[in-house]
C-alpha cells in the first residue's frame, strides 16, 4: 500500500520489523478527526455525507484501478484528516483476490451474496459496503439492528428491500435503492455510482484530473533531471505493483533462489574454469558407496516408521534413482528428489506406488521426460522444474489423474499433440501447467482441445501475439502471464525497460527481443563502469572468475573430500556467482554493455554518458534493454535512469510527448502487465 498513492487513501509511512521482539510496526498517516461516523450517533449533515461519500468512492476506484479490493469498507475504516478529507484505512483484508464465497470483513457490511455463499468479486463486496457506509452516515444506524449473524443472514437473504428513511435527500435515496438492490443483476456498482446525479458537480469540481500544461521538449538537462527526480518517486519498489499473481511471484523467487544456491546452467559458465576448480569436474559426477548407503538408510528409516507420508532425498548425489527406493512404495504419498544430479529414474517400477500423489524431481539433470513416473496410478502433482527436458511426450494424456504439471526452467521449445491430434496437455484431469523459463516460441499446439486448463507462461511477445489473435476462439483455457519480459515504452522506439531481478534474465529473453545492447547498474563493485564492448566484458568476467578460483581453491578441496559429496560443495559458481546476463553465451550475443556506477549523489557526467550511449544505439537503429532493479538500485540511480530515458524518448518522439506524460509512460512500463 505504500506505493498506491491517492489523496483518499491513508498513506503508509513506514514498516519497522523489530526482529528481537518478533513484531512488525506499521506507521500510518495520522487522521485527527477519526472515523467518518460512529454507529448510533446522529446522522451527518447532508453535505458531509455527500463530501465523505465522494472521498471514499474516489479512493475505492483508485484501489480497483490497481486490481486491489478492500474487502472491509465501513465507517470505522474511513478516517477524516485535519483538512476534512475522508481517507480509506485498515488494509488488513485488502488483497488482489477477485472471487470468494466467504463472508469477509465485517458481516454487517457484507452483501447478500456473501451470506448465500456465492462466489463474488471484490468490486461487488466493496460496492455494497460503500453503500452501507453511506446508509449509516445518512441514517445514524444500519438497516438491521441485530447482534445475531443468523438473524442478519435471514434479513439479508430476504428479498424485501432495505428500509430507507423518508427524510433522506431524494437523490441519495435513489442511489441507495440502486446500490442496495438485493438482486445483483439489477444492482448499481461503483463505476456507475460515480456518474449518479447525487455526485454530479461535486465529483467534477473536486476530482477531475487536470491535464498538465505542455512543456518544452528542449528542456535543459538539469531541469529535466530535477523534475524527473520528483516524479519518479511513483516508481519506488515497482515490483509491489504486481497484484493477483502470487503464484508467478513465487516461481520467480524460486528461480532467483535456485540461481543463488546452485550451479549455473551449462551454457552460462566458462567451462575451462570448471576444470580449474580441482576435483569438481571429476568427482562430482561419480556415485560412491557412501551416497548409496545414505540413500538406503533414508529409505529404510522411512519404511521402518510404517507411516504414510513424504519421502525426501535431497542433496545426495545419485545419477539414477536406485531400485531399492521402491521398498517404500506401499507407504509413500509424496516423493521428493532434488539436487541429486539425476539423469534418469532408473529401473524403479512406479506402478507399485499405489498411494503416490505428489512427485517432485527438481533441480536435477534430466534431459528426457521420465515416462515411467506416469505409471503411478494416482499421481496428481508432477514437478519436474529446473531440469534440461526438451519435450513433453504424448503419453502425458494417459495420466488419468494428473492435475498439475510443473515444467518451469527446462528447455521445452515446442508443445505438440498426441496421435489423435489433441494437445499433449489435454489429459482428462489436467488443470494447471507451468511452462515459464522455457524457450517457447509458440503456444502449445491444439490448445483448444484442453478443457479447464490454466497455463502459466512467460510474456514472450510472440506468445502474447498468438494468444490475442486466437482469444476469440471457443476455449476454456486461461493463461496467467509471468510478466518477466522487458517492456517497450513506445512501439516506434526500440527501447525496453526491465524491472525484475537481474538474475532472472537470460539469453532466451534477449534473443526473443532481438536486442544487442543492455544497460545495467553496478550491482558488483568489480564491474567496470561506462560503455564496455561484449568481448571486453567476457574477458573481464573470465579474469575475475580465475581470481576467485585461486582465492577459494583450498576451501573447495576440503569440502569435496567429505565422505558424502553434496550439492553444496564449492565450485566456481559458488566462488563468484554471476547472473546469466554476464554469461559467456550472452556476452557473445550482445554488442555492448553500459554499466552505470552507483553514486550517492547526482553527477552530470553519468547522466551525459548514459544519454550518449542510448542516443548512439538508437541512432544505429539497435535496440537497448535498460535494467532497473528497484530492490537493489539506489533512489538516485533510479532517478538518473528515468530522467535520461525521458530525455532520449522525448527526442526520439520529436517532442510529441510532454515531459510529465513521458515520465508516466516510463514508470508504467516498469510496472508490467499487472500494475
From TrEMBL:
One of its GO terms (biological process) is intracellular signal transduction. Residues 1-199 form the Protein kinase domain. Keywords: ATP-binding, Kinase, Leucine-rich repeat, Nucleotide-binding, Repeat, Transferase. The keyword Nucleotide-binding applies. GO terms for cellular component: cytoplasm. This is Protein kinase. It holds the Pfam family LRR_8. One of its GO terms (molecular function) is ATP binding.
Amino acid at each position: 500500500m505504500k506505493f498506491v498513492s491517492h489523496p483518499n487513501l491513508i498513506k503508509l509511512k513506514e514498516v519497522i520489523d523489530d526482529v528481537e521482539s518478533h513484531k512488525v510496526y506499521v506507521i500510518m498517516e495520522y487522521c485527527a478527526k477519526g472515523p467518518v461516523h460512529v454507529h448510533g450517533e446522529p446522522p451527518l449533515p447532508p453535505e458531509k455525507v455527500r463530501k465523505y461519500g465522494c472521498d471514499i468512492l474516489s479512493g475505492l476506484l483508485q484501489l480497483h484501478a490497481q486490481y486491489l479490493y478492500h474487502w472491509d469498507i465501513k465507517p470505522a475504516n474511513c478516517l477524516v484528516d485535519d483538512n476534512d478529507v475522508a481517507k480509506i484505512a485498515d488494509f488488513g483484508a485488502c488483497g488482489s483476490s477477485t472471487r470468494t464465497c466467504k463472508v469477509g470483513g465485517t458481516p454487517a457490511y457484507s452483501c447478500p451474496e456473501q451470506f448465500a455463499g456465492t462466489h463474488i468479486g471484490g468490486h461487488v463486496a466493496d460496492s455494497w459496503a460503500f453503500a452501507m457506509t453511506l446508509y449509516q452516515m445518512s441514517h445514524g444506524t444500519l438497516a438491521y439492528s441485530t447482534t445475531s449473524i443468523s438473524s442478519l443472514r435471514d434479513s439479508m437473504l430476504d428479498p424485501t428491500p432495505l428500509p430507507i428513511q423518508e427524510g433522506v435527500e431524494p437523490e441519495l435515496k435513489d442511489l441507495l435503492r440502486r446500490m442496495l438492490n438485493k438482486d445483483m443483476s439489477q444492482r448499481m456498482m461503483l463505476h456507475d455510482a460515480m456518474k449518479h446525479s447525487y455526485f454530479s458537480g461535486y465529483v467534477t469540481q473536486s476530482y477531475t484530473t487536470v491535464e498538465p500544461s505542455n512543456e518544452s521538449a528542449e528542456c535543459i538537462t538539469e531541469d529535466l533531471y530535477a523534475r524527473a527526480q520528483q516524479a519518479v518517486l511513483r516508481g519506488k519498489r515497482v515490483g509491489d505493483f504486481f497484484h493477483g499473481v502470487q503464484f508467478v511471484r513465487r516461481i520467480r523467487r524460486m528461480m532467483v533462489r535456485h540461481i543463488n544456491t546452485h550451479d549455473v546452467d551449462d551454457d552460462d559458465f566458462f567451462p575451462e574454469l570448471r576444470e580449474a576448480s580441482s576435483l569438481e569436474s571429476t568427482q562430482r559426477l561419480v556415485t560412491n558407496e557412501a551416497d548409496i548407503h545414505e540413500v538406503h538408510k533414508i529409505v529404510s528409516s522411512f519404511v521402518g516408521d510404517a507411516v504414510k507420508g513424504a519421502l525426501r532425498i535431497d542433496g545426495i548425489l545419485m545419477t539414477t534413482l536406485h531400485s531399492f527406493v521402491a521398498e517404500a512404495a506401499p507407504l509413500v504419498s509424496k516423493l521428493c528428489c532434488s539436487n541429486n544430479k539425476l539423469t534418469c529414474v532408473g529401473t524403479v517400477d512406479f506402478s507399485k506406488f499405489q498411494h503416490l500423489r505428489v512427485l517432485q524431481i527438481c533441480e536435477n539433470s534430466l534431459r528426457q521426460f521420465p515416462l515411467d513416473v506416469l505409471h503411478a496410478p494416482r499421481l496428481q502433482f508432477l514437478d519436474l522444474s529446473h531440469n534440461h527436458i526438451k519435450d513433453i511426450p504424448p503419453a502425458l494424456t494417459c495420466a488419468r489423474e494428473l492435475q498439475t504439471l510443473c515444467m518451469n526452467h527446462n528447455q521445452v521449445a515446442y508443445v505438440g499433440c498426441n496421435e489423435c491430434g489433441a494437445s499433449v496437455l489435454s489429459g482428462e484431469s489436467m488443470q494447471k501447467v507451468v511452462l515459464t523459463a522455457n524457450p517457447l516460441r509458440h503456444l502449445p499446439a491444439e490448445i483448444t482441445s484442453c478443457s479447464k486448463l490454466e497455463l502459466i507462461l512467460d510474456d514472450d511477445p510472440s506468445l502474447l501475439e498468438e494468444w490475442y489473435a486466437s482469444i476469440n476462439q471457443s476455449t476454456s483455457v486461461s493463461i496467467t502471464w509471468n510478466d518477466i519480459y522487458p517492456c517497450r515504452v513506445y512501439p516506434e522506439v526500440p527501447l525496453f525497460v526491465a524491472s525484475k531481478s537481474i538474475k532472472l534474465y537470460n539469453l532466451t529473453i534477449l534473443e526473443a527481443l532481438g536486442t544487442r545492447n543492455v544497460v545495467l547498474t553496478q550491482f558488483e563493485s568489480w564491474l567496470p563502469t561506462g560503455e564496455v564492448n561484449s568481448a571486453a566484458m567476457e574477458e573481464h568476467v573470465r579474469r575475475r572468475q580465475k581470481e576467485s578460483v585461486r582465492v577459494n581453491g583450498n576451501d573447495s578441496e576440503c569440502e569435496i573430500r567429505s565422505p558424502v559429496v553434496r550439492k553444496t560443495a564449492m565450485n566456481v559458481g559458488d566462488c563468484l556467482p554471476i547472473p546469466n546476463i554476464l554469461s559467456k553465451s550472452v556476452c557473445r550475443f550482445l554488442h555492448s554493455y553500459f554499466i552505470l556506477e552507483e553514486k550517492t549523489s547526482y553527477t552530470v557526467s553519468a547522466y551525459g554518458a548514459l544519454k550518449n550511449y542510448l542516443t548512439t544505439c538508437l541512432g544505429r537503429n539497435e535496440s537497448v534493454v535498460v535494467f532497473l532493479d528497484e530492490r537493489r538500485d539506489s533512489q538516485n540511480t533510479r532517478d538518473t535512469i528515468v530522467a535520461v530515458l525521458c530525455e532520449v524518448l522525448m527526442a526520439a518522439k520529436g517532442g510529441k510527448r510532454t515531459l510529465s506524460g513521458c515520465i508516466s509512460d516510463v514508470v508504467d512500463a516498469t510496472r508490467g502487465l499487472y500494475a
